[in-house]
Specification:
Number of strands: 6
Distance between the termini: 23 Å
CATH superfamily: ph1033 like domains
InterPro entries: 5hmC_binding, EVE_domain, PUA-like_sf, THYN1-like_EVE
Number of domains: 1
Strand order of the largest sheet: 2-5-4-3-1-6
CATH class: Alpha Beta
Protein name: EVE domain-containing protein
Number of helices: 5
Order of helices and strands: EHEHEEEHHEH
CATH architecture: Roll
CATH topology: ph1033 like fold
Oligomer: single chain
Pfam families: EVE
Radius of gyration: 14 Å
Organism: Hymenobacter busanensis
Amino acid sequence: MNYWLVKSEPAAYSFADLERDGHTGWTGVRNHQARNYLAQMQPGDQVLVYHSVTDKEVVGVAQVARAAYPDRTAEPSSPWVAVDLQPKLRLPRPVSLAAIKADARLQQMGLLRQSRLSVMPLQAAEFDALLELAH
């Protein structure tokens, strides 16, 4: 199993929206590196959902329900892909960007090194540390 973090503006699509819908296609990613990460996701992989722009916090855990397939929001025959995510767990306490920056275990996390990337891998230890901070 692999671990990931995806970012979404809560005004556009929040974790609450994912909970309400029960699943969603994670579409609209238009960065080549982020697309490559989406293409690596497999069913069962765990995904932390980060609310960007306004809240700047990790708010929930989702799971990959379907591996990469052509993104329906892109032009046909384009290289863009999407995956299906389903909600797994709302964190008891959101983990703020400030808390992430303050934790020595998370200093190499992609969120801090490539802050504009919307999809990124996590190490298992980073995933576990973030869940710990949420309790």
